[in-house]
Amino acid sequence: MGIFATTGLVVKIVLFILLYFSVVSWAIIFYKLLQVHRANNESVRFLEFFWKAKRFDAINAQLDRFSNSPLTVLFNEGYGEMKKLMEKGEEKQDPTIISTELGGIDNISRALRRATTSEITRLEKYLTFLATTGSTAPFIGLFGTVWGIMTAFKGIGETGSASLAVVAPGIAEALIATAIGLVAAIPAVMGYNHFQQKIRVLIAEMDSFSTEFLNIVQRTFTGK
Amino acid sequence: MRRALKRNEPGPGGMLVWSFLLHAALFFLVTQLNILSGVQPDNAPVYYVDVVNLPVARPRSGNPAGSTAGATEPAPPPAAPKPQPEEMRLPAKTTPPSRPKTATAAPSVKAKQDRQETTQDFEERLARLQQETESRHESAALDALRRRAAGRGKGQAGMPGAAGKEAGSDYSSYIQSRLKDAFKSTITFQSRTPEVRVRLTIDRAGHIVRQRIEYSSGDRLFEGAVLQAIAKAEKSFTPPPGGQDFEHGFVFKPQGVGKN
User: Fold this and answer.
1) What's the domain count of chain A?
2) How far is CA A88 from CA B1, B199, B228, in A?
3) Any domain includes B71
4) What confidence score (pLDDT) does residue B173 get?
5) Domain interval for residue A46
């Protein structure tokens, strides 16, 4: 406690900034852990359910059970678009055939792509803060240290006494800033890399699910 | 139809509270376990040596000064100094390290004076001389101890048991030296000429019961260093003599600690 109390104003400001970075990045890490964990789990369960179900209506009725999975959102968007096209087909006396006049399957594909993009955005939200913390916190800490050492040396210059007893406490206090900068940065970098990898897997799953969904729609409803 | 999905995940705001709690707990742990205390320079322990003043032999007579000191001394020295032979004047014989010198110096002097002396006689005399020197040291040391014991029974190990009149032996000087030692390890300051005057009140058990900053040049860092030094020095304080409370002002400057 004493070592924090005796630091200079600039070092104190630096420490507070680093504390802010650390608190927010840990909050993001907790939030993302929960979000990605749920997305992964529910995606696995949703895929099982999807392949077992016979009808899209049945899947659609159960969507709320897997609401945290990005695949659910994709299915919801794709199914919604398909319904609209079927309604168009109904007007033209054949309810089972999706209208291909305006490129029906392309419509669904576009809807799926849009949903994928919005889900990637949702999953990657706040991750930039982790990247920023990881790259800037050590430098902010270093700035605090350099400033603290500058003050310590200024003190030596003014008094002319250069004993270790005079210099060492100032430098020790200054080095605390670098230490806290690293403490803030290391979990942020680790968290960022971890979530990037997990999100990449989820994106791959979304892509393959989109392809599968389009295949099923094309096979079943357009008769191709 | 497309519908909105109901998601049940907590927002990042809730996590912010958890994160803050985690940091508070960590900070508490670090400060409680004093993990960062190792960062501060930790000096080697200071040992205080109580110097016993052995009486100095008078060059003329060779008698220890202590043996002639006042009539108040209760007991006579056990081995009373005898009239010394002529050659005993030469060697310095008051301190233990000089004893071997006595042994080596004596023969050389003697050799010059009396070349006819046989080796056997010489050895006998040397042994006698050594015995005499030792007995004189013993008596002097005993004398000093006796005087200490008889004079001031309240004296404490590690500090002079004097009445406070001898130079450097009063309690305030004792406290000053402890403060000075502690201050060396805590001193830090920002301003050019920092100064802090503190008045300390020490109870009969040797604990600081009150400390008041009477004057400060306004350097917060320096004030902190002074207070740290006082807290550090307090551990080595002994109770003031006479079983009374002690109060004194001290001036802290970057050059050291002085009495107010």
Assistant:
1) 1
2) 13, 95, 84
3) yes
4) 85
5) 2-221
Conformational region of residue A62, where left means phi above 0, alpha means psi within -120 to 50, and beta covers everything else: alpha
Between these two residues, A148 and B108, which has the higher pLDDT value?
A148
Q: What is the token pair recorded at A222?
A: 């357009």
- Give me the number of domains chain B comprises: 2
* pLDDT, tens digit (0-9, with 9 covering 90-100), for B185-208: 888 887 778 889 999 888 888 888
**What is the mean pLDDT of the segment spanning B46-71?**
56
- What does the pLDDT read at residue B232? 87
pLDDT score recorded for residue B67: 44
Q: Which of B90, B118, B151 is the last residue of a domain?
A: B151
Pick from A27-31, A41-45, B124-128, B218-222: least confident: B218-222
Residue B126 lies in a domain: yes
Q: What is the pLDDT of residues B142-155, one digit of tens each?
A: 888 887 776 554 44
Interface test mutation site (partner A, options B195, B221, B226, B255, max chain A beta carbons within 10 A): B221
Nearest to B240 by CA among B216, B207, B193, B214: B207
Which residue from B minimizes the CA distance to A20?
Answer: B20
Interface of A with B in 3-42 (CB under 8 A): 3, 5-6, 8, 19, 22-24, 26-28, 30-31, 34-35, 38
Domain shared by B93 and B124, yes or no: yes
Query: Nearest CA to A28 among B8, B12, B14?
Result: B12
Judge whether B215 lies within some domain. Answer: yes
Query: Within the 94-133 window of chain A, which residues sit less than 8 Å (CB to CB) from chain B?
Result: 126
**Mean pLDDT (whole number) for A151-176:** 76
Q: Which long-range contacts (CB under 8 A, 24 or more apart) does A191-194 make?
A: A191/A25, A191/A28, A191/A29, A191/A32, A191/A130, A192/A127, A192/A130, A192/A131, A192/A134
CB–CB contact B41 A169 (8 Å): yes
pTM summary value: 0.54
User: Which residues in chain B have Cβ-Cβ distances shorter than 8 Å to A175?
Assistant: 39
Q: Give yes or no: residues B142 and B188 share one domain.
A: no
CATH number at residue B249: 3.30.1150
- Asked if B126 and B206 sit in the same domain, the reply is no
**Mean pLDDT, residues A129-156:** 91
Radius of gyration of chain B (CA): 32
Would you say the ipTM is above 0.90?
no
Please indicate, yes or no, if residue B37 is contained in any of the structural domains. Answer: no
* Domain ranges, residue B246: 171-259
Taking all residues of chain A, what is their mean pLDDT, rounded to a whole number?
86
